[in-house]
Specification:
two-stranded parallel sheet, Rossmann fold, globular, single chain, 13 strands, alpha/beta
Length: about 290
């Protein structure tokens, strides 16, 4: 009986599409305060701090059955099954629409709804700084679909916030390191922006903690580390650390954007990065 009472005292957190970032987030939520459930179509084994439930979010009946548990906090962090307009529309737009639709039909409402978005919503190409107030006029299907999903959450009627992550790297996300190793890196002078996967999870946990103490969250947070840098600078540093002499490819391009993401709003909320620069994060990755 004591165990059941203890469980009732914990806030129930649901992570929809609970992959790598979701698992990391669950690990950073204090277990004495939160009970975390992760939704996956094909869930892996439970972890000590995370219980999984099988659910196809596009199936309204399955989703309604899950949401009957009445979660205080719902985090939507999806990964498209394919990099296409249809893949993004299904993963982001349809998921957000379905979650909001089912929640509206229920009597108990979540205290906070968080949607994990991306800096792909920005199309700036001249190396300028962007923040949460900057124009979002993406030309890519990914940016357009993410903005569409953001609007669904923003207009849901529930207290919500959107977190736009820049390029995520970390364990299992070694694309740039492999490009350097295989002499496929780009010499582009365009600025790139990144954030370590741990800081992604920690920033989400930070916002959840702020909300728990009745702090008003901003509608949008741009989450990127403190060192936007030209791609050539990043890959040159990696090559030096790795002892690789030939690392550039004439055919490699990095023309998806050229902007610098400001994390001022996130920092002003009290968040502290574990890896404030790409050198901090990649140095640890290279040790591993």
């Amino acid at each position: 009986m004591a165990m059941n009472s203890e469980l009732l005292l914990k806030e129930q957190v649901l992570i929809v599409g609970c992959g790598d970032i979701g698992q990391r987030l669950a690990a950073y939520l204090p277990p004495e305060l939160y009970a975390v459930t992760g939704l996956r179509r094909h869930p892996p084994a439970d972890l000590p701090y995370l219980k999984y439930r099988q659910c196809d979010v596009s199936d309204r009946a399955q989703l309604a059955s899950v949401l009957e548990q009445q979660f205080s906090i719902i985090v939507i962090t999806m990964t498209p099954s394919e990099r296409s307009d249809a893949g993004y529309e299904h993963a982001y737009v349809q998921t957000c629409a379905k979650v909001v639709e089912v929640l509206r039909a229920q009597s108990c409402k979540p205290r906070l709804l968080i949607f994990v978005s991306s800096s792909a919503v920005y199309a700036q190409m001249n190396g300028e700084w962007v923040d949460e107030t900057s124009p979002t006029e993406p030309g890519s299907f990914s940016g357009k679909r993410l903005l569409e999903a953001e609007a669904i959450i923003r207009n849901s009627g529930f207290i919500n916030t959107v977190v736009r992550f820049s390029g995520i790297y970390g364990p299992g996300r070694n694309r740039l390191i492999e490009q350097v190793r295989q002499a496929k890196a780009s010499a582009s002078p365009h600025f790139t922006n990144r954030i370590h996967a741990d800081d992604c999870a920690r920033s989400l946990a930070h916002l959840i903690a702020l909300n728990r103490t009745n702090k008003t969250l901003e509608p949008i947070y741009l989450a990127s580390d403190s060192s936007p840098a030209p791609m050539i600078e990043v890959v040159s540093w990696l090559a030096q650390q790795m002892g690789v002499k030939d690392f550039l490819s004439d055919s490699a391009t990095n023309e998806r954007g050229n902007k610098r993401c400001s994390n001022r709003r996130l920092l002003e909320s009290g968040f502290e990065f574990r890896y404030p620069t790409f050198k901090d994060g990649y140095a640890e990755l290279l040790k591993q």
